[in-house]
Amino acid sequence: MTAPASPAPPLPTPEPTPYQGAPDRFPRRPRHLLDTATDPEAVELTGPVFGPADVHDLDADLTRQHAGEPQGERLTVTGRVLDRAGRPVRGQLVEIWQANASGRYAHRQDRHPAPLDPHFTGVGRCLTDDHGRYAFTTIRPGAYPLPDDSAWRPAHLHFSFFGSAFTQRLVTQMYFPGDPLLPHDQMLAGVADPAARQRLIAVYDHALSHPGGPLAYRWDVVLDGPSATWTEGTR
């Protein structure tokens, strides 16, 4: 009798490759260091304007910012912004930007041959409430190819979170569940921790989706600590 064959060893798990991005997104000039020692307010020279008076309800509804209706599947994205202890972060300025339903940004440097939508700019903002909640109404963005045509990026929303100063800004991306392009996305694959990758994917919330209305997705963000949401340039 021959001895039973021993089980094959498990395949090695490839190391995540840090996302490099498109070459034209890299800075071409050296960093400009601000002299905050002699001018403490210099750091705010290029900062945003904060305050509830500068943000109104229409900013958070990307489908009502133009005279006509934008093309695409309507959806809402809502969630809470929390600190490491699970406490709500109030008054947080949250910004989003995205491609339109055809996968093209309303930006002069976007050369993707997909059509532009004259009724969709793809930018919005809001302030978190006393419970740390934010909410946006928008359309599902389309996938688009990378500039070198090496791969396609899945549908995603870019998020920016501000604290009380420009230097406290965090930028990340939110993905949609079930997207077949997720396993092939270079940026998502560059996040080494599988749990951190999963935290970048929103959850469909049927309870918040109303018949005849937009589909609803829930995406909570943790700003720091061991369960922090991955942000660009920090992890």
Automatic annotation (TrEMBL):
Q: Which InterPro entries match?
A: Intradiol_dOase_C, Intradiol_dOase_core, Intradiol_RC_Dioxygenase
Region entry Disordered, spans: 1-32
Pfam families assigned to the protein according to its UniProt record, in alphabetical order: Dioxygenase_C
Biological source species:
Streptomyces noursei (Streptomyces albulus)
> What is the superkingdom listed in this entry's lineage?
Bacteria
Q: Compositional bias (Pro residues) at which positions?
A: 1-17
Q: Which UniProt keywords apply?
A: Dioxygenase, Oxidoreductase
Family membership:
Belongs to the intradiol ring-cleavage dioxygenase family.
Q: What is this protein called?
A: Protocatechuate 3,4-dioxygenase subunit beta
Mind listing the GO molecular function terms for this protein? ferric iron binding; oxidoreductase activity, acting on single donors with incorporation of molecular oxygen, incorporation of two atoms of oxygen
